[in-house]
Amino acid sequence: MAAKKSTTERSATAVPQARTAAPAAPGELAVRAGEEPWSEEEVAEARAGLQADADRLREEISAAEAALSGLMRDSGDGAGDDQADTGTKNVTREHEMALASNAREVLYQTERALRQLEASTYGLCENCGNPIGKARMQAFPRATLCVDCKQKQERRF
Q1: Greatest pairwise CA separation for the chain in angstroms
Q2: Contact of 75 with 93, CB cutoff 8 Å
């Protein structure tokens, strides 16, 4: 009869072995088993792309805030406007607010990815700690979850 595994043995064997692909040296980014390591050029390209996105998003946020400011100033008390004009102004204002909110969220994710690049934690899943995968990070540079964890997350909702 085989002996029962202790809780420590079970939890140790339940951890996926992909963790061994984590960075071996400071400044080295995680890759999945079988992937080529990140080259300095690829890291510089990822950083430049994220920085360009951050700059573009800051401009979008400024433009949206300026548009919102104008819409708020023009809304006044609505005297003389018919219902259609008031409705159009409300829809336009809501649309600008949604655009600004979305841009702020993406900017937050972009700045977070830049900080992770600097800390050499870029490309590690926030849920399980395994490498996300170089190809996935190149396709979606703000990814925070590996494919498995992302699929599990989406199934919950």
Answers
A1: 88
A2: yes
pLDDT, tens digit, 9 for 90 and up, residues 143-155: 999 999 999 999 9
One-letter amino acid for residue 106 of the chain = V
Q: How far apart are alpha carbons 60 and 97 in whole angstroms?
A: 12
Which of 38-77 are b and which e, b meaning 16 or more Cβ less than 10 Å from the residue's Cβ?
Answer: beeeebeebbeebeebbeebeebbeebeebbeebeeeeee
> Given phi > 0 = left and psi -120 to 50 = alpha, else beta, which region is 86?
alpha
pLDDT single digits (tens) 61-119? 999 888 888 777 766 555 566 777 777 888 888 888 898 999 999 999 999 999 999 99
